[in-house]
Amino acid sequence: MARAIKAAATEVAALADPVREFLHCPTPEAWLERAESELPLLLIDHAHCEKKAASTALSLMYRYPEHTELLGKLAQLAREELLHFEQVLDLMAGREVVYGHLSPSRYASGLRREVAANEPEKCVDTLIVGAIIEARSCERFAALAPRFRDRDPELSRYYRFLLKSESRHFEDYLALARRYARGPIEDRTEALLERERVLIESPDPEFRFHSGIPA
What we know:
Order of helices and strands: HHHHHHHHHEE
Number of strands: 2
Shape: globular
Number of helices: 9
């Protein structure tokens, strides 16, 4: 058992390290503590996030049909996200958690307000924001998995599975941003990451999968 736990922890660290290096801050401890006590709400919003991730990928495919590489990458991503949406619904059903409407968190809208209005900068910024959201999701999967290991082993395993499945998504988004940018994207990426850090580290009136410090 100890060997299996150590192997799982090693795998999580290997997958999560690139994500942690990319982001400007880790998830605050206060958010993780709240997640443990708000599991039904966490699962409901997680399901919404998977559905929104698929929707975002499809929206970009409709908006930029001339970008062949984007179409291929995001079609695959959308399929994966919809599958994960179904899987989270199954987890919820096993725990008698009812899926329903939730008001959106400030997180995604706070990032998207920073997106440029004109092309091609708008496309590039949207792709960078997609990378950041995917990276934060994986960082939280990695942080949550060990916390649920004893209390809910099935959920802990699923978060490790999602980390393995989705850990490349942020890199796919960044590669597309570089593909369609007029020049280097590093400065713009750093600026958007800093905005994300503020959203994660500041008090947040609503608890959601991507929310900040619980107010």
